[in-house]
Amino acid sequence: xxxxxxxxxxxxxxxxxxxxxxxxxxxxxxxxxxxxxxxxxxxxxxxxxxxxxxxx
Amino acid sequence: xxxxxxxxxxxxxxxxxxxxxxxxxxxxxxxxxxxxxxxxxxxxxxxxxxxxxxxxxxxxxxxxxxxxxxxxxxxxxxxxxxxxxxxxxxxxxxxxxxxxxxxxxxxxxxxxxxxxxxxxxxxxxxxxxxxxxxxxxxxxxxxxxxxxxxxxxxxxxxxxxxxxxxxxxxxxxxxxxxxxxxxxxxxxxxxxxxxxxxxxxxxxxxxxxxxxxxxxxxxxxxxxxxxxxxxxxxxxxxxxxxxxx
Lengths: 56, 245
Known about the structure:
The complex is a heterodimer of chains A (about 55) and B (about 240). Helix content of chain A is about 80%, strand content about 0%. Chain A has about 55 residues and is mainly alpha-helical. The mean pLDDT of chain A is about 85. Classes of the chains: A mainly alpha (about 55), B mainly alpha (about 240). The interface between A and B is medium-sized, with 29 and 37 residues.
């Protein structure tokens, strides 16, 4: 099987790859969003720590 | 109960989840890469659907996970509601966005699969409609959580929504038998021989495990952040922050 045959997916390439592409985007968002959230919380908590005693 | 109380403390879970994340992430990556290889390359084309059926390898795992995640979310929510276990509230809350994204992926990939096979992107078929309702249930749950500032009250109110919404899960599952509309019935069940070839079954199982471990991985990551924030006034979080800054 050649590379272009593989990409063509027997004529269904547009459907197959857009479905896999959408799933890939969802997975990427599901990884990026919690990691960004984690960083945000750490930054906020560290800032709180610097202002010792003060809350939020 | 003793077990729940031992590992149910957010502090212990934070440490445990932290150790599990790299393992879960590694297992997810291995399963995902092998599942994609098997599903897109190794498995032969279907005699009826050609290569279009390969959409199944992401559609079905996401659809399964959408229902599984909702069920465990409702169980966590119920445990949190009945026994006042804070960790269960947290696990329910962080499961919702993951479940919603599995549901959306199942809906969109199903739609993309439906167009070449059924000749339509969408029909108000029982399976499709009940899955769409599942998506709205997740959105409603998250909106309710977000609209109440107090963690305990937010958990209580949204737990009721989660538990009532469980009624939709058997409806989704049996919709293809109760109403014979467009969506095909299940090819795989726990009680009988699968109705598909091993060459299709193996990639499907591998991809399903990949998405299951992906759920575990992101559940741990999300729960840790939520625990850190909710426990920010406690000594152990303060010590952790001092140690890491």
